[in-house]
Amino acid sequence: MFSFLRQPYPLSELTLSKSLLHSVLFGAIIAFTLIVFQPFGSYNWHHPSKNPILAGYGVVAAVSVFLNFYAFRRMLPWLFREPAWSVGKEIVWNLAHFGTGGFLCTVYGSLAGVMPFSLDQILYMSFIAFLMGLVPAILLVMINYVYLLQKYRPLEPTGKKEAPAPEVSRPEENDLTLLAENGKDSLRLLARDLLFIEASDNYCTVFHVEDGKLQKALLRSSLSRLENQITHPAMLRCHRSYLVNLNRVQTVSGNAQGYKLHFEGTDQLVPVARSYSGRVRETFVAV
């Protein structure tokens, strides 16, 4: 059980517009549930503004979702790092949302004059929210985890299994000239010798093979600038920080967070952003 909770899990990155949309939809569902089904004793509660007050809890739920799934992630970037994110962390963070919701519901109920603002009331409201969300939070994460494992199954080069690498194309052997931003520093190599390029801050590290040995060259340049200098069809921008030569990929491993590319001569794994996974699946076949 504990090993399952430590398994890698993707960290969802929602834009502001998508976060607002999700928050509004979630709040609308909560408001609809409270008004129509009136759970937790609200059926026996009578108030001249009952439905508007219950609808207000939907607004509170929407605010809580927005805080947890967008605002807090922007405020605490060091906490939300996908390489360290796991199934257990995803479940815990989803449940933490209900603690935030319980607190905000108590504040709202106190302002509306329908409940006292006290620690006991905060704990009670958080407990109710926790009970409502416990099973969905765990079940949805587990279902999505199994789905992602199937989606990102390990891949191998097309053709025979013993083939060392996929042949995306067979163009003429041509030189690549990668020019740094200062216009003076450059690296000249054959396209077939390039493994991948990694971007870090204002520099790029070019991993390539020379005389059968792995070499690294550092160029002061953005990855986009170097990408524009390369026209070879086997070169793919697979991540915001990586550009790879698909012809030099040995194998492709996968987990719930997506694909990882393996290259000969280095233990460094290159991640594939989920938006680029389709191109990788087109080039390789499932094991």
TrEMBL record:
InterPro entries: LytR-like, LytTR_DNA-bd_dom. The chain crosses the membrane at residues 20-41, 53-71, 91-111, 123-147. Keywords: Membrane, Transmembrane, Transmembrane helix. The keyword Ligase does not apply. Residues 178-286 form the HTH LytTR-type domain. The keyword Membrane applies. It holds the Pfam family LytTR. PANTHER family: STAGE 0 SPORULATION PROTEIN A HOMOLOG, TRANSCRIPTIONAL REGULATOR-RELATED. This is LytTR family transcriptional regulator. It comes from Rufibacter sediminis. The lineage of its organism: Bacteria, Pseudomonadati, Bacteroidota, Cytophagia, Cytophagales.
